[in-house]
Design a protein that fits this description.
By secondary structure, this protein is mainly α. The protein contains 30 helices and no strands. Helix 15 runs parallel beside helix 17, helix 26 runs parallel beside helix 30 and helix 29 packs across helix 30. It is elongated and about 100 Å long. The termini are far apart. This is FHF complex subunit HOOK-interacting protein 2B isoform X5. InterPro entries: ARM-type_fold, FHIP, FHIP_C, FHIP_KELAA_motif. It comes from Bos indicus. Belongs to the FHIP family.
C-alpha cells in the first residue's frame, strides 16, 4: 500500500491533488481498520507493523493528511496506545511515530492545536477560536480540490478537513484536557532504553519550541504539557533516598539530559542512579525553558518554582532535621550550578532572595528564606554552614544583578561607612588606629611580633583620589607578621600563582557583569550630609563574624568563608572595591571593613602565638600536612595553626585580586593579558 501511494503521488500532474488510491484509503477507513487490528494485537506483532506503516505514510506522502478526519482519528487512537506501558516492546516504533508527528508540527505550527486536542470535549466557542486559522487554510485547500466528494452512504468522507475538528465531536471515553501526544512523549521520556528516551526528549523539545504564539498559548493553557513535565521532576526528587551524602551530591558532575551518567563501580554510591536521573531531568527542564517559546518558557519556569522550590524544597530547607537541611541545600546548590535559562534563574533568585530592594536592618526578624539561609551559614553545625556557604558562592556566580544588589550593594549605596567631614589620615597608622585597638597594646607591639614590613608614612593616591594599587597590595601582603608566614619555605605557594588565578576569575566576572552598566568610580560624598547609621547587611555581617573567628574554626569551613569573600571582592563595582579591598578607606565610627576585621584577627594571632611552644616548626609541619607532603598527624593547637595558614593565603589572594582589578596604570574592567611577577 505504501509503495502504491508514493508511486501514485509521484505520477500526479498537479501538486496537491488526491489520487484514487489515496481517496480509497481514506473513504474506506483502512487506517482505522489497521489501528483496530494494532490495538488488538491481531495477529501478534500487528501493533508494531501498524506503527511503522503510519510513520512511513505520514513521512513519505507529501500530501497533507493530518487534516483529514479519517487520518486524525486513527492517529489519536495510536497515540493513546503509546507511552503507557513502561518497557513496551513497541517503544522504538512509538518514538518514530511521534518523531514524524513533531516534524509535521514544526513545518506547520497550526497543526499543534489540531493534534493536541485529541479526545477531549470542549465548547464550540473555544474550539472555533483555537482552530480558526486551520479552517481558513482548509477552505483554501477545498477550493483547490472540488472533485473530492463525500461518499453517498453518509459516513464521514475523506474530504473531512480541519473544519470538522474532532474537538467538536464527543467520544464516549473523552476526558477534559487529555492530550495524547504530550502524555505519550512524557511516557517515552521515562523509557529505560537510552536512545528511545533521548529521541522522545528531542521530540518534546521540538514541540515546545514552535514559533506560533497561538500554538504556544494553547500548549500552556489547554494541554497537560507543563504539569506533566514538572510532575515527573517532583517525582524524581521525592524518590531520592534520604540517606544521600551531601559530599556525594556535590561531587557528581557532568550530568546532562543528553548524556545521563550511568553509575560506575569506581565512583558508585547509594542513590547515585536516582540522583543522576533527577539532575538529568532537571537539566532537561532547564534546556526546555531556554529553547521553548516565551509563553511556554515562562509557564514552565513558574511551575518549577512553585511545585519544586516552594512546595518541596522550602519546607526541607527550614526543617529542624539537620540531614534534611543538608541534603536539600546540597541539591539546590547542584541545581544552581546546572541552571542556564534566564527565566528559571529569575525564579530561583526570587525564591532564594526575594525581590525586595530595601536594605535590611540589624534588628529585622528572619521573615524571608534568605535570612534563614544566611543564619544557616553561621549554624552550630559546621556541615550546614559549609553547605549553605557553597550555595551562596554558587549563587554569586550567576549572571543576575539582583543577587549582588540584594546581598551587598543595597547596603553600601550612600557610602555611609565613610566618615563625613573628617580629614584624610596623615599616616597608615592613623587609618588602622593601632594605638586604640585593644589587641595592639604596647606590650605586644614591643614583644617582637611586628608586621613584616613597616607601613608607608602615607598612602599614595592616583590623580582621581583612589589609593594606588601598590599600596593596597602591600597592605595585604604585609599584614601577616613574618613569624606567622611559612609559604616562603615551600615552592608554588607564592603570590604569583594567586595573580594568575585571580586574573582568569576577574576576567570571567567582568564579562558577566558588563551588561549591568556599573559605574567606574564611587559617587562623591556630600560633606554637609548628616551621617547615617551604617549596617553592612546580614550577609556581610555573617561573613565578617565568621572571618573574625578564623583562628578557631575548622579548616574546611575557613576555606569556604574565604572563598565566598574572594568571590565578592572580584566584582568590579567601585563600592565593593572600596569597602572590601581599600585599607585606607576612612571608616565612620563603629563601622568595620574586611581589612579592619583582618587587623583584629592579626592582633588575636599575635597574642596567641606566645602560648604555642615551637610555633614556627609546628606551623610549617601543618602547612606541609595540608599540602599532602607529609602524613597527617594530630597536633596540639592544630585548628589554630591551620587557621594561620588560611589567613596568610587569604591575604595573598586579596592582594592578587586588588592587583588584577586595578593595575598600576589605572582601573580596567577587561585586562588584556595576565600580569607576571611580584608587585
Amino acid at each position: 500500500m505504501l509503495d502504491i501511494l508514493v508511486y501514485e503521488e509521484k505520477q500526479q500532474a498537479a501538486a496537491g491533488e488526491t489520487g484514487p488510491c489515496l481517496e480509497y484509503l481514506l473513504q474506506h477507513k483502512i487506517l482505522e481498520t489497521l489501528c483496530t487490528l494494532g490495538k488488538a494485537e491481531y495477529p501478534p506483532g500487528m501493533r508494531q507493523q501498524v506503527l511503522q506503516f503510519f510513520s512511513k505514510v505520514l513521512a513519505q506522502v507529501q500530501h497533507p493528511l493530518l487534516h483529514y478526519l479519517n487520518v486524525h482519528r486513527p492517529v489519536q487512537k495510536l497515540l493513546r496506545l503509546g507511552g503507557t506501558v513502561p518497557g513496551s516492546l513497541t517503544e522504538k516504533e512509538e518514538v518514530q511515530f511521534t518523531t514524524v508527528l513533531c516534524s509535521k508540527i514544526q513545518q506547520d505550527p497550526a497543526l499543534l492545536t489540531y493534534i493536541l486536542e485529541g479526545k477531549k470535549t470542549i465548547g464550540r466557542k473555544a474550539s472555533r477560536e483555537a482552530t480558526a486559522p486551520l479552517r481558513e487554510a482548509a477552505s483554501v485547500r477545498d477550493k483547490d480540490r472540488p472533485h473530492i466528494k463525500a461518499p453517498d452512504n453518509g459516513t464521514c468522507g475523506a474530504w473531512a478537513s480541519s473544519a470538522q475538528l474532532p474537538a467538536e465531536t464527543e467520544e464516549p471515553d473523552g476526558a477534559i484536557g487529555e492530550s495524547s501526544l504530550i502524555t505519550t512523549l512524557i511516557g517515552l521520556c521515562k523509557s529505560k532504553k537510552g536512545r528511545v528516551a533521548l529521541k522522545a526528549r528531542e521530540n518534546l523539545l521540538l514541540l515546545v519550541s514552535v514559533a506560533s504564539q497561538a500554538a504556544a498559548t494553547y500548549l500552556v493553557q489547554s494541554s497537560p504539557c507543563c504539569p506533566a513535565i514538572i510532575e515527573y521532576l517532583c517525582q524524581l526528587y521525592q524518590s531520592l533516598p534520604s540517606s544521600l551524602d551531601p559530599a556525594d551530591i556535590a561531587a557528581l558532575e557532568g550530568i546532562s539530559w543528553r548524556l545521563p551518567s550511568a553509575p560506575s563501580d569506581e565512583a558508585s554510591f547509594p542513590g547515585k542512579e536516582a540522583l543522576a536521573a533527577f539532575l538529568g531531568w532537571f537539566d532537561y527542564c532547564d534546556h526546555l525553558i531556554t529553547e521553548a517559546h516565551t509563553v511556554v518558557s515562562d509557564a514552565l519556569a513558574k511551575a518549577v518554582a512553585e511545585k519544586l522550590f516552594v512546595e518541596i524544597l522550602q519546607p526541607q530547607l527550614l526543617h529542624v532535621s539537620e540531614q534534611s537541611v543538608l541534603m536539600s541545600t546540597a541539591l539546590l546548590t547542584v541545581m544552581l550550578r546546572q541552571l542556564r535559562s534566564p527565566a528559571l534563574l529569575q525564579e530561583a533568585v526570587a525564591f532564594l532572595l526575594g525581590m525586595d530592594q530595601q536594605p535590611a536592618a540589624p534588628e529585622d526578624s528572619p521573615r524571608t528564606l534568605c535570612t534563614h539561609l544566611i543564619r544557616h551559614c553561621d549554624h552550630l553545625s559546621d556541615e550546614i554552614s559549609i553547605a549553605t556557604l557553597r550555595l551562596f558562592e554558587e549563587l554569586l556566580q550567576k549572571p543576575h544583578e539582583h543577587i549582588v544588589r540584594s546581598l551587598i550593594l543595597c547596603h553600601l549605596e550612600g557610602r555611609s561607612y565613610v566618615a563625613r567631614g573628617s580629614p584624610e589620615p596623615e599616616s597608615y597608622e592613623d587609618t588602622l588606629d593601632l594605638e586604640e585597638d585593644p589587641y595592639f597594646t604596647d606590650s605586644f607591639l614591643d614583644s617582637g611580633f611586628q608586621p613584616s614590613v613597616k607601613p608607608p608614612p602615607a598612602p599614595a593616591t592616583n590623580p582621581d583620589g583612589k589609593t594606588a594599587v601598590t599600596e593596597i597590595v602591600n597592605s595585604f601582603l604585609c599584614l601577616v607578621p613574618e613569624e606567622a608566614k611559612t609559604s616562603a619555605f615551600l615552592e608554588e605557594t607564592g603570590y604569583d600563582t594567586y595573580v594568575h588565578d585571580a586574573y582568569g576569575l576577574f576576567q570571567e566576572c567582568s564579562s558577566r557583569v558588563t551588561p549591568w552598566g556599573w559605574p567606574l568610580a564611587p559617587p562623591p560624598l556630600d560633606p554637609h550630609e548628616p551621617e547615617r547609621p551604617f549596617f553592612e547587611g546580614p550577609f556581610l555581617q555573617m561573613l565578617f563574624d565568621r572571618m573574625s573567628r578564623i583562628l578557631e574554626q575548622p579548616y574546611s569551613l575557613n576555606l569556604q568563608v574565604t572563598s565566598v569573600l574572594s568571590r565578592l571582592a572580584l566584582f568590579p563595582h567601585p563600592l565593593i572595591h572600596e569597602y572590601l579591598l581599600d585599607p585606607y578607606t576612612n571608616l565612620a565610627p563603629g563601622c568595620r571593613s574586611l581589612f579592619s576585621v583582618l587587623v583584629r584577627v592579626i592582633g588575636d594571632l599575635m597574642q596567641r602565638i606566645q602560648r604555642v611552644p615551637q610555633f614556627p616548626g609546628k606551623l610549617l609541619l601543618v602547612r606541609r600536612q595540608l599540602m599532602g607532603q607529609v602524613p597527617g598527624e594530630q597536633l596540639d593547637h592544630q585548628t589554630f595553626l591551620q587557621g594561620v595558614v588560611v589567613l596568610e593565603e587569604f591575604c595573598k589572594e586579596l592582594a592578587a585580586i586588588a592587583f588584577v582589578k586595578f593595575p598600576p596604570h589605572g582601573p580596567r574592567l577587561h585586562p588584556s593579558k595576565p600580569p607576571e611577577g611580584h608587585v
